[in-house]
Amino acid sequence: MKSLENLAGLIVTVPHKPAAALSVSHPTERAELLGAVNILRLDSAGDWHGDIVDGAGFVAGLLVRGQRVAGRHALVVGAGGAGTAIAIALAHAEVTEVAVSDVALDRAALLVNKIAVTGVSARVSGPDAHGFDLVVNASPVGMKVDDPLPIRCEYLGPDAIAADVVIFPESTKFLTVAQERGCFVQPGRYMMDHQISVMAEFFGFTGGNWSTDAVARTGL
Questions:
Q1: Angle, CA of 42, 45 and 49, to the nearest 5°
Q2: Does residue 48 carry a pLDDT above 90?
């Protein structure tokens, strides 16, 4: 990639965010803490700079839509790049606790340790919505029509926020169930919409319509 003279940078998606961070010489503070990046750019010396803005976009999407984040009990299912970014962003947004669930228990435990650095209570949990009022599917489960539910929703209450990072389909099986139970739902496109202007600034782009639909049309 360094040999391409017209390369503005890279946007990295699942499952390559942690691996991409290994190539970054100049990570932002949050990228260094999370150990993952989803945007990279080259400087004049040929070094990669990297940041991860999934979490900032996720929280901004909720706040812009009038949802309270502070004081909630959050469950984040999936401790990969997006899940890690979201969990840390929720901690900085002053949730009361963040519980983490992942099929790899060691990865969930590692994320719990990172959250603890922020001073917010954190623990490893199973993928069960019981007792939480902010439930996030940060795993890729739901991208396929025959995927199972990533989270047990028997005790998901109508006062909860249910959010997904999956962009297509917009209404995943998890969000459909949550909406039927009266929850406020946030599809994955809101996380993308509210980080994409930050991405554009990171790459040095100014002006323009930086929405998910516009980017899809331009092929960024």
A1: 35
A2: yes
